[in-house]
Amino acid sequence: MKTAFLRYLCGVLLCLASSAWAQEGSVSGAVLQAPGQQPLEGVKVSAQSPVLPVPRGAVTDARGHFALTALPAGRYTLRFEKESFQSVIRTDVRVEAGQALALKVELVSVGTGAVSTAPAHAFSPLAPLAPPQRWESDGVAWMASARSGDIRDRAPPWVLPQESSPSPSVANSLMLAPGSKLLRDLDPRGFGVNPTIDTEEERISTYPLRVSTASYVLTKGYLARDTLPPEESVRVEDFVNSFDLGEPGELVGPFKLHVEGYPSPSRKGYHFVRVSLHSLEDFSDVGMQVEFDRRVVARYRLVGYEQTSATPEPLDDDAEPEAVPMKAGASVTAIYEVKLIGPGISFATARVLYEVGENTSWRRAYKYLPSSTLRSSSARAAPESRLAFVAAAFAEKLRGSHWTRSLDWARLHALWQDIGAPLTGRPDVVELGALIKKAGSLDQRKDREGSLSNLDPDASPVPGK
């Protein structure tokens, strides 16, 4: 009796397994280097599809082979990426039930200058970024819409105090980065510093692709007169974008995107991440959005890019929103701090919204930001990324940011020395080192929040201090 029942049970399970297998397929193949057709080991292969609850991944072996098995039938997007090679995306890959799909993929080294024949992204008409543009300026993300009242009425209690505006004589010496325009029209009001945001509350970060060197020039003028600049006049994005960080990166539509990060020297448990966008053409309007994967990133902070206009004026009925142009050859860099909570092939997705000329439809390009770009140490990162961190940390120190309390001036100067050759021999980088030393010698400010002994890198600033 028991034997008959067991046979019946095994038969049922076998039928169920066969039925499940019949609804699945597989994708396998080889990844080769072009030209030369040499197998590529260590290529990360990821598969995404509406039929998958989470992306699936594999890594090529010494023969360049990979295999993705037990894939539910459906349409997939496959991504092939390896450091120093242009990524390849295969869209609309159809996996049939009970069938094995074989692919051959070629990756081109970034150094060869060749262009992949596979589509790198999808373009389509698009309305303004969805969800609508948001800014991280007052403790939570909020919609960019007209509001009444001063920014001080909306800021959290721990933002930096407001101070006097910079002198007109210094303001007259401002300079713009190529292809950019002045931000905030030298609005001297302080907007505090951006908060750390939990991705469960808001996973999308948006920032404008227009910057100037204004704040950095102001700071140099103040330090030349042996005076620290007013805290609210310091803009992190202006400091970072005052330096040429090179033009490496992967093609993303008519742009190049470079992403790199490493463990933050100033905030334990977080990674510093640099996102640099380089334009290959002239555009009448450009916007940038980074969407973090909640399964990989627990929290993030956009460093700089605080509210660009404290009280936006409502537009007239016949008025048009101001465009944010970006000229060919222009580059814009943003800095993030991110806290990782789990492994993943990619930790975020970058989307670029752009418009060419007048009366044209919006287009967008996107790129998954691979976790492989997050290095294990700063020594493994490019010197340009280390320079970006030092420039950002310098600005944060000058503005008295809560998030750099654990980084003293001596340590910051040591990090400047660690940028390494050939950058530390470049005149503008040499000047940065001298400015850091000068600011450190002038800084007599007391810590508003007391002892650093129990500093929690996840905790918000203490209200009222």
UniProtKB/TrEMBL annotation:
Under which name does UniProt file this protein? Uncharacterized protein
Q: Which Gene3D superfamilies match?
A: Carboxypeptidase-like, regulatory domain
Q: Does the keyword Signal apply?
A: yes
Q: Tell me the classification of the organism that encodes this protein.
A: Bacteria, Pseudomonadati, Myxococcota, Myxococcia, Myxococcales
What residue stretches are annotated with the Uncharacterised protein YfbK N-terminal domain?
193-274
- Coiled-coil ranges per UniProt: none
Identify one Pfam family in the record.
CarboxypepD_reg
Concerning InterPro entries, the annotation shows:
Carb-bd-like_fold, Uncharacterised_YfbK_N, YfbK_C
